[in-house]
Design brief:
Blueprint: H1 2-8, E1 21-30, E2 33-43, E3 48-53, H2 59-67, E4 74-79, E5 82-83, E6 94-97, H3 109-119, H4 124-137, H5 153-165, E7 171-175, H6 183-200, E8 203-208, H7 211-217, E9 220-225, E10 228-233, H8 235-240, H9 245-250, E11 255-264, E12 269-273, E13 279-283, E14 294-299, E15 305-307, E16 318-328, E17 332-338, E18 344-350, E19 367-371, E20 377-380
Parallel strand pairs: 3-8, 3-9, 6-7, 7-8
Antiparallel strand pairs: 1-2, 1-4, 4-5, 9-10, 11-12, 11-14, 12-13, 14-20, 15-19, 16-17, 16-19, 17-18
The chain binds adenosine-5'-diphosphate and magnesium ion (MG).
Length: about 375
Amino acid sequence: MPQDDNFAHRPWLDPDKDPFIKIRSVSKRFGDFTAVDNVDLDIYKGELFCLLGGSGCGKSTLLRMLAGFETPSSGELFIDGEKINDIPAYARPVNMMFQSYALFPHMTVEKNIAYGLQRDGVAKAEIKDRVSDMIKLVQLNDLAKRKPNQLSGGQCQRVALARALIKQPKVLLLDEPLAALDKRLREQTQYELMNLQDQLGITFVVVTHDQEEAMTLSTRIAVMDKGKFVQTGTPTEIYETPDSRFVANFIGSANIFQGHVVESDRDRVVVRSVRDDNLLFYIDHGSDLQVNAKVWVAIRPEKVRISTTPHAEARSNQLAGIVHDIGYLGRLSNYKIKLDNGKMIDVTHPNQTRPKSGEHLADWDEKVYLSWEPSSAVVLTQ
Ligand SMILES: Nc1ncnc2c1ncn2[C@@H]1O[C@H](COP(=O)(O)OP(=O)(O)O)[C@@H](O)[C@H]1O
Ligand SMILES: [Mg+2]
């Protein structure tokens, strides 16, 4: 059935599939502080699932509960159909890669990777084979005899990854796996991590505070704030249809207008913003919102067209302002446009042609017109 094919890469849509990891009403309190607040989550086999949120929102605590390093104050955790609450960390079918890597400084790469198998009493010949396979997999062939202080940050990261993978866990938990790497290496390593996960088919749960990283890596993302999940979905769902101002601003940036619904149909919503010169927003997807409901309209900076002449076809979703600031970033330019009421609108414009020196689409203090498609705006109720 073609249906099955659809589900192969999106098992969470398959009503017949059981989640591999189930988190049920899990909380973690430290004294009277609640770090993880009654969360529910399903993660499916083979996913690369990201827990994304700002510092202190409870990501690591949740990961550590899956690993067995913290005990939930309440709630239940399941992996592969088995309740794991009472299983000690070492006996769980998971392994964790720590942010700090925690390599043994006095051991070579090889010995670091072999350590877990040795401790488990695996036969020498088997250890040798598995270590050598793992070294190939993470491309450390020439460095097997070195010690951690003779390796770069990226190489240490791979040793830590190999060490976590060699015990063939069903689930690999990664806490900020790329945070110690510089930007370029981080981007390269993101792709390596995705390839590795794809090859091995192990379920990865990754904690990160970096929204671009989460967008690049994940099958799905749970956005966390103050111990709760505020939205869960694919990177595209979360970026294109955030369901709160918090998510719209946390994942990328958004221009947000407060207003009220003046028309609400099956295929169209019209919002008026009294604060912004009675501007009308036409949004071409329906909602069940009541007329007069207080809402916010969010528009991503890259969905806004900018022009020095009014957009002839756009009778709506158009406004005018003055160029307040221009940031030239090479492949794109960021404009800050000031409206009459003082509100600033962010516009991102791709630089398709190379500008002559000092030349911009619009100049400082110039009057410009902004417009966007009715499909580009999202209506938010919180
Ligand atoms: N062992 C602990 N004792 C007391 N408070 C803790 C402990 N571990 C974490 N916390 C607190 O719980 C909150 C969430 O921490 P953490 O899960 O590490 O956040 P994140 O990984 O999202 O940055 C923080 O406010 C942190 O200070
Ligand atoms: Mg953390």
